[in-house]
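Example 9 (inverse folding). The structure is encoded as follows.
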């Protein structure tokens, strides 16, 4: 990518020829992927197709069998990336019910890293926490224990925790699971705003094709390999996708049962 002065800008994410093996089995392979600043990328694919594996490889949690990952030009575990990456894991909002922690306390955890773990929040960190709570619209319940929140509110709280780190690159794994349509729409709107107004870069995994189509500018369909990577408007319909996967529909109206298309 080039900036306005035609200088080369480092991509946010650069994945080159990545293969990951788990328990002796190739889970993802031949993965090449570049994401630039401000992009909102949706990552879809059936259960077990390797979406979470790809995210964990990007974060440097899983070892690569082959290839490389660069985030802002550095390997995933580099100190220079401290605080730059926000991460909402799959089922992150399934927090144990017996943890007595308020929304504000949960969001504050997002500001903690290896450098400041044992210090009180400084002024800037407090501002980030205030801002994150405001962005996700949880000011009214900031002192409420998370166990008392609705599923949608809890999901917002874990997103706020990722935002409180002031991360520029946010990865979310199935943030829309188990929440109602209104909550889903407001979270999507929020993520869209983060890209457009705050210049964040987002990579979001979801089963919910309709939801991703509404918001992501670009979509990736992963099933061991990247089978599609392009503009959301060019994303193939489910029958074409089934063809990509070598599945012959039995009935004309057969839907891909693994990936959900709502309304
Ligand atoms: N810890 C593990 N050890 C070995 N294999 C694993 C492990 N975790 C996942 N796998 C396997 O890796 C494959 C991909 O799993 P992954 O969780 O990346 O898929 P996914 O696309 O995120 O699925 P889902 O939509 O269900 O979240 C699956 O076949 C799974 O069984
Ligand atoms: Mg997963």
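The amino acid assigned to each position is listed next.
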């Amino acid at each position: 990518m080039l900036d306005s002065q035609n200088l080369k800008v480092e991509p946010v994410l650069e994945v080159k020829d990545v293969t990951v093996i788990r328990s002796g089995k190739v889970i993802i392979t031949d993965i090449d992927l570049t994401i630039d600043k401000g992009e909102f990328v949706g990552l879809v694919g059936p259960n077990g197709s390797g979406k979470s594996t790809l995210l964990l490889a990007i974060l440097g949690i899983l070892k690569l069998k082959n290839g490389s990952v660069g985030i802002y030009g550095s390997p995933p575990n580099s100190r220079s990336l401290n605080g730059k990456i926000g991460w909402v894991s799959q089922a992150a909002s399934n927090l144990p019910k017996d943890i007595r922690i308020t929304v504000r306390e949960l969001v504050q955890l997002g500001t903690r890293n290896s450098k400041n773990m044992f210090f009180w929040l400084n002024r800037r960190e407090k501002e980030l926490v205030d801002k994150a709570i405001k962005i996700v619209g949880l000011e009214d319940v900031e002192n409420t224990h998370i166990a008392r929140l609705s599923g949608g509110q809890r999901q917002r709280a874990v997103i706020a925790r990722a935002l409180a780190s002031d991360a520029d690159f946010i990865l979310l794994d199935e943030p829309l699971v188990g929440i109602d349509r209104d909550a889903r729409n407001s979270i999507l709107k929020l993520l869209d705003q983060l890209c457009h107004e705050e210049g964040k870069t987002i990579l979001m995994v979801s089963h919910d094709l309709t939801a991703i189509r509404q918001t992501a500018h670009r979509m990736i369909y992963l099933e061991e390999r990247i089978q599609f990577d392009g503009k959301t408007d060019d994303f193939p319909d489910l029958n074409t996708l089934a063809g990509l996967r070598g599945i012959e529909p039995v009935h004309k109206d057969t839907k891909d049962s693994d990936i959900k298309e709502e309304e």
